[in-house]
Design a protein that fits this description.
alpha+beta, Helix Hairpins, BirA Bifunctional Protein, domain 2, 3 domains, 3-stranded mixed β-sheet, 8 helices, Histidyl-tRNA synthetase, ligase, nucleotide-binding, HisRS-like_core
Length: about 250
């Protein structure tokens, strides 16, 4: 810092000398010589990083929310949470980051979208990609076999964001899960009912709920001869079909 201050003082003095020579209408050769000295001093000084301009903005794929937008979000969350509780669900929370080994290998090709954190005290950590894997880890750690839970929290994906289409790198997920042994299709029917109740309460207009069965996809892959090692990768590719642009 002291060295930089000394250089700044020399630049100031040399600048004053150049201005003085110009006012005195000194010879062009002398002025040129002193200007060269000034430029040399400025080159030694270099840019002042503390004074460099930078643009204030949010990280790519994220955004701020105004008080008005937060009021809308809180109202929507209130509708969702009241519905979840009405169906007997309990809320849980999990860390925003997990051990990297907990998350890796659970998402197939999409594992590359997981945000890794720097080594913290010998632990390799990653930001959670969704709320499902942390829930599975929670069940295993606590040896739970029956629970109806909901969890509303932010998740993170190092994806290529499309802000105009609502595709962000940081966003909320609202999860409702029923873990345990129940009569066939009863939990599935309840989840569909919850979804319809929430969308109806939000008064978003007409909506269409599409229902799929994983066993149909399993059967299609089996007929096509897809090996188990490629199952997750192809599932991820199929999942992206709806996101691809359609032809005319």
């Amino acid at each position: 810092m002291a060295e930089r201050a000394a250089l700044e003082e020399l630049v100031k003095l040399q600048g004053e000398r150049v201005r003085g020579l110009k006012q005195q209408k000194a010879s062009a050769e002398l002025i040129e010589e002193e200007v060269a000295k000034l430029l040399k001093l400025k080159a030694q000084l270099g840019p002042d990083e503390s004074k460099q301009k930078f643009v204030l903005k949010t990280p790519k794929g994220t955004r701020d929310y105004s008080p008005r937008q937060m009021a809308v979000r809180e109202k929507v969350f209130d509708v969702i949470i009241r519905c979840f509780k009405r169906h007997g669900a309990e809320v849980i929370d999990t860390p925003v980051f997990e051990l990297k080994e907990t998350l890796m290998g659970k998402y197939g090709e999409d594992s590359k979208l997981i945000y890794d954190l720097k080594d913290q005290g010998g632990e390799l950590l990653s930001l959670r990609y969704d709320l499902t894997v942390p829930f599975a880890r929670y069940l295993a750690m606590n040896k739970l076999t029956n629970i109806k839970r909901y969890h509303i929290a932010k998740v993170y994906r190092r994806d290529n964001p499309a802000m105009t289409r609502g595709r962000y790198r940081e966003f909320y997920q609202c999860d409702f899960d029923i873990a345990g042994n129940f009569d066939p299709m009863i939990p599935d029917a309840e989840c569909l009912k919850i979804m319809c109740e929430i969308l109806s309460s939000l008064q978003i207009g007409d909506f269409l709920v599409k229902v799929n069965d994983r066993r149909i996809l399993d059967g299609m892959f089996a007929i096509c001869g897809v090996s188990d090692s490629k199952f997750r990768t192809i599932c991820s590719s199929v999942d992206k079909l709806d996101k691809l642009p359609r032809g005319p």
